[in-house]
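Changelog note: in this version the structure field was regenerated for every chain. One regenerated record is shown below for reference.
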Amino acid sequence: MTKTTLCAMLLSSALASTAFALPAMAQTSAPPATTAPSTSAPAATAPAAGAAGAFVASATTGDWRASKLAGVSIYGPDDKSIGKVDDIVLDKTGQSKLVVIAVGGVLGMGAKHVAVPFEAVTWSSEPVAVKAAPAPASDTTSTIPKSSPAGSPSMAAAPAKPTVYDYPDHGSLAMTVDQLKAAPEFKYASQQ
């Protein structure tokens, strides 16, 4: 659990530092504007992005929370689950470098950890398409109307899911579970 929390904090800080750096880079890349000197009193200036005291008020659509990436399912080319994200490894600049996937095991016990480059995973916010089973034959002999029992919630009354998530629904790899099981086990630098 501690490893997951540490990974989440590292990825969050990396994403936050990137968010601070982007507006600063945009300011330095814009050509300076030429204006006539003003005779009025100077206005108070806000701190530059990335300076002490600058804050980001909210994330933008498409930003992911590192704490929510751990546990995201990874699917193979046949749309079958092959593992779950256990960790994300960052480089010194804060860029995501590796995805550590837990393969096999039961309830998280005995799983093998395999790492693939972050770019090898195709992330999707859409759920994996489940092949629908054939619909049962309709019962035309029943005359009792089908309704919810008294006191049970109706399907129509269920609250709608939010349309924006802070994490992807799943990731996909062009590998099978057997290929991941045959891959060398991943070791962190501190484990070597």
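Spot check on this record: The helical segments are 2-29, 66-69, 177-182. The radius of gyration is 25 Å.
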